[in-house]
Request: fold
Amino acid sequence: MEPGSAVRRGAALMGRLFNTLLAACLVPAAAMANTAPATVAGVNAVLDRPAVQDRQAQHRVMLGLDRLGGRAIAVGERGLVLLSDDGGRKWRQAQVPVSVTLTAVRFVTPQQAWAIGHGGVVLHSVDGGATWRRQLDGRGIIRLLDTAARDNEALAATARQFAADGPDKPLLDLHFFDARRGIVAGAYGLALRTEDGGATWAVLNHAIDNPDGLHVYAIAARGDETWLAGEQGYLARSVDGGRNFTRVQAPYKGTWFTARPLPDGGMLFAGLRGNAFRWDGQGFEQLAGYAPVSLSASASGPRGVLLADQAGHLYRAGTAQQPARMVKLATPPAPIAALAATAEGDVLVAGVRGVSRIDAAMLEGGAP
Reply:
């Protein structure tokens, strides 16, 4: 297993760069029983308090991005959700019923989108992200765990720990196969599934090979093939649309922060110290060309796959035969948490400086 000191160094780095992302500075899952419970009243307050309208919202810490058609959505600290209909040139704030930090967002149709975050929050929009309704939070997750543990003794310890800590555990990534079937996952291996568009949710932990409750940072899927990726090299694969996951031996023991299907049919996994690997259906091959800095985000666009790291470097993803190429940017680098590409090839960037846009023309070149 990855040495504990390496886990702590990686978590500390994430914490410094994205200090509003609680999950990035989570203690290793193995130490869960030694953590102090969060203040339940404090968590409840931000779960029930709507996000405040903020004139500087575009410049706050933003952690998640997605785009479909002409609309882009960005999410971040204090429940901020921003919308853009002009390729990221201008942004406006949406109405959100919580003020917890939001970590990820996904469109499913031009009208339907889901967002997740701290406090086990799952939000749903049916108007393209303009307004949001809470479908689930940590309080509901505790009840779901309690119910599931009655029929599954393996979940009992997890249910007790979550109940003792309160509704504080963050969700970190999500994937929807269609407008009804979706998965969310996050801290301590917590995973839930919906089959009815989020009207109801069920605990998925019993169907996932993750006995140590390792944090899940990324979900990636192509058709029914679905992957979970997380701390200490954790990888698990499903071939039945995310209903059952079997652990896969990883090519290294460092934490993964991003995963994505590749145009060539492979699957990309990237994380600590610039490590990136491609799964070809049979095994892994390492991808070269990245600085020894944690790769934190990826996106697919009309010009291929891009990756970003915590130092603010942007790369064109390479192949086993061709190293990645760093894109020379005119703006000073800043830590990047999420990427999204527009249909025109521009790239939207979210991070500690808020959300911004990189013109496609700037992406044409690249350092060898």
